Amino acid sequence: xxxxxxxxxxxxxxxxxxxxxxxxxxxxxxxxxxxxxxxxxxxxxxxxxxxxxxxxxxxxxxxxxxxxxxxxxxxxxxxxxxxxx
Length: 85
Prior knowledge:
Blueprint: E1 4-9, E2 15-20, E3 34-40, E4 46-53, E5 61-66
Antiparallel strand pairs: 1-2, 2-5, 3-4
């Protein structure tokens, strides 16, 4: 069952998206949406972490509405801290 929520996305531009949410009471992932697996190299040293997606959610998302530039948050104070050139 899909648990939908509205979220904002930044790439490639600001937009509202509809996305799935992991089940909060999932016994496998604890509501995170994935199970972390740490792995090592041939010498036994830590080499990284992989995340296996849990079955309680899908990586489904749909763009609802691209946000116009005037709705984006502006820095307070009215002035930009970036140089003009």
